[in-house]
Amino acid sequence: MVRGTDPIVKSSDQNQAPLIGLLLSRPFQVVDERVNAALHRAGHTDIRPAHQIVFRLLGGGGARLVDLAARGLMTKQSMGYLVDHLEGAGYVERVSDPLDGRAKILQLTPLGRAAEGVARAAITELQNDWAREMGQGDFDLLIQLLRRLNAQLQTGDSR
Fold this sequence. Notes:
This is HTH marR-type domain-containing protein. Keywords: DNA-binding, Transcription, Transcription regulation. Residues 17-151 form the HTH marR-type domain. InterPro entries: HTH_MarR-typ, MarR/SlyA-like, Tscrpt_reg_MarR-type_CS, WH-like_DNA-bd_sf, WH_DNA-bd_sf. The protein is mainly α. It has one domain (35-149): Arc Repressor Mutant, subunit A, CATH 1.10.10.10. The chain contains 6 helices and 2 strands. A two-stranded antiparallel sheet has the order 1-2. Helix 1 (20-41) crosses helix 5 (110-134), helix 3 (65-71) crosses helix 4 and helix 5 (110-134) packs across helix 6. The longest helix is centred in the last third of the chain and has 25 residues, at 110-134. Residues 1-5 have low confidence and may be disordered.
């Protein structure tokens, strides 16, 4: 990379600051790449980067397909396609919702929890790498600011 240029800035005006979406997208992409590589090394070659949203949104308690789709800003059909693949591969299962017998809850299977563990370990390693590269104080500040931003967004205050 040539010193003094920012590969993120794609504008014809190099003095224009990149928008926040660009600044957030590359680190997120690196997380996905690192997780995908770790999953494949661990033998989970049937999980693709597109499937990672299911693991991110599902959490430990499980969720309905319609809720996953809403949280992922996807159609129910698109989320269903991803979930069907993961269910067929043995990573998730559908169980009866104890609050509504007509509905199904998606949850991780033991294989899904193992894959989630691989992903968490890869993310922890990446965070440790970034903390070393940036300096622990700067990395801690980044995490603190991102947590604050996420908390504000959850309460609807996106000022």
